[in-house]
Amino acid sequence: MSEDVFKKIISHCKEYGFVFQSSEIYDGLSAVYDYGQMGVELKNNLKRYWWDSMVLLHENVVGIDSAIFMHPTIWKASGHVDAFNDPLIDNKDSKKRYRADVLIEDHLAKIDDKINKEVEKAAKRFGESFDETMFRQTNPRILENQAKRDEIHSRFAKALNDNNLDELRQIIIDCEIVCPVSGTRNWTEVRQFNLMFATEMGSTADGAMKVYLRPETAQGIFVNFLNVQKTGRMKIPFGIAQIGKAFRNEIVARQFIFRMREFEQMEMQFFVRPGEELDWFAKWKETRMKWHKALGYGDNKYRFHDHDKLAHYANAATDIEFEMPFGFKEVEGIHSRTDFDLASHEKFSGKKLQYFDPELNKSYTPYVIETSIGVDRMFLSTMAASYAEEELEGGESRVVLKLPAALAPIKLAVLPLVKKDGLPEKAREIIDSLKFDFKCQYDEKDSIGKRYRRQDAIGTPYCVTVDHQSLEDNTVTIRYRDTMQQERVTIDKLSDIISDKVSMKNLLKTIG
Ligand code: ATP
């Protein structure tokens, strides 16, 4: 997939009411987006798939909904005030600002591409007898590129770990990385930039209190750990799940809803006995990958990416990456956070956040495995995986969103063949009987062909056409989105046919 397809997806999102630029009539607000009438349904379905997979399928996972505003000391304790920074660098000619780490990562990805292209070319040339491992180990051009990559990579990982901003800049200079806009290498120093938004709360004689818009939902879970454990009589291991908005003043906010300043997260913190965290880390990695793959976007579109730089609190971390139109990118992070957060909140608040383990007959600060996924990135990967342009017989073409039926905003469109003879009334009757179970849409405008196209474009899995015969024998034509096949069925069968595929329960059963 290419940038070109990405542009088409963005305009498709706008044209069909999935995603709008925020404040559009005022020329927009950078990296902030609104979800439209179709987008909100799809987004809600994604959230439901995640929520149910957590709290229905795991007896020991419960949810909460904590506030966006929290006591400012929380962000001291979590490390966000001091260390939630991105290294930024400006190009003096274009005046564009970049994340220094992203410039270097993109450069590394280019070298990887070069190597992979070389391998692909050779695979074609040698055909069946091709031995990829051997080729990678012996081809001089590959060896040279690989060595170059490894060297940059180890310098990069070290610079990040040491927080060495001069070295990050030096790598950019040494790799001759140019600004994509000006094409020059005229770079400023690298500086740290804190990503939290601050605002003021209340007004007292001494002034207002500085509070932050939360940059992640996780801290709301940590500070409620004991509340939930005690009132829910939870026993370790157990998890707390939450879906909610998070805010980050991203330096380079582009790529549509991939990197936003206001976004939504679905996070789950799983509390375990110290020493058992790496086993749970492995389990949650597997569980979460299964959740992604069950959507059927293609197993080859996912991969794990282990972190080069472990955050100060983590003892293991990986990302689940999805192949976006612009390459493999992080959709979800899975982190083993040790007891860093709870221990730190104990220290800063002076309150005990320990668990008494009746089996071990002792108290301890639990260790935590976190799974953290962005709703918006999940939305984008869903769009990218579902968008298709198809050539049809007779020189026609169609754009179709092949959304998993359980996620589709509209499950069923009911279309009277003509606007008269009692057909609209019959169509309404069908909707009235199905509307409690499925989101239905009525459409009587334009030809049937045009109406099918409109439903294809929003990913509606089923269209039902009501014609004159329907009045006589209570049958309708049902048309399937992906195959475009049609069959005649009795109206009372519709509910069964539709519920089988669109049911969230059936989707959950594949992973539960
Ligand atoms: P990145 O390296 O891309 O900035 P991150 O590693 O900072 O992401 P986390 O802090 O692990 O991200 O956040 C967990 C998840 O939240 C990410 O996997 C992503 O899906 C989502 N997320 C983070 N930042 C943004 C953003 N600015 N816009 C949309 N989603 C985001």
Write up this protein.
With 512 residues, the chain is an alpha+beta fold. 40% of the residues lie in helices and 24% in strands. The protein has a 7-stranded mixed sheet with strand order 3-9-10-16-13-12-11. A 5-stranded mixed sheet has the order 20-19-21-22-23, sandwiched between helices. Strand 7 (198-201) and strand 8 (209-212) form a beta hairpin. The protein is globular, with a radius of gyration of 26 Å. Bound molecules: adenosine-5'-triphosphate. Adenosine-5'-triphosphate binds at residues 216, 248, 250, 259-260, 263, 265, 330-333, 372-374, 376-377.
Strand order of the largest sheet: 3-9-10-16-13-12-11
Structural class: alpha+beta
Rg, alpha carbons: 26 Å
What is the helix content? 25-40%
Helix-strand blueprint:
Blueprint: H1 3-15, E1 19-21, E2 33-35, H2 37-55, E3 61-63, H3 73-77, H4 80-83, E4 85-90, E5 97-99, H5 100-126, H6 132-138, H7 140-162, H8 165-174, E6 191-194, E7 198-201, E8 209-212, H9 218-222, H10 225-231, E9 238-247, E10 262-272, H11 277-293, E11 302-306, E12 316-324, E13 327-338, H12 340-349, E14 355-357, E15 362-364, E16 367-374, H13 375-386, E17 387-391, E18 397-401, E19 412-416, H14 423-434, E20 440-442, H15 448-458, E21 462-466, H16 468-473, E22 475-480, E23 486-490, H17 494-502, H18 504-509
Parallel strand pairs: 3-9, 19-20, 19-21
Antiparallel strand pairs: 1-2, 4-5, 4-6, 7-8, 9-10, 10-16, 11-12, 12-13, 13-16, 14-15, 17-18, 21-22, 22-23
Helix pairs in contact: 2-13, 5-7, 5-8, 7-8
The structure holds adenosine-5'-triphosphate (ATP).
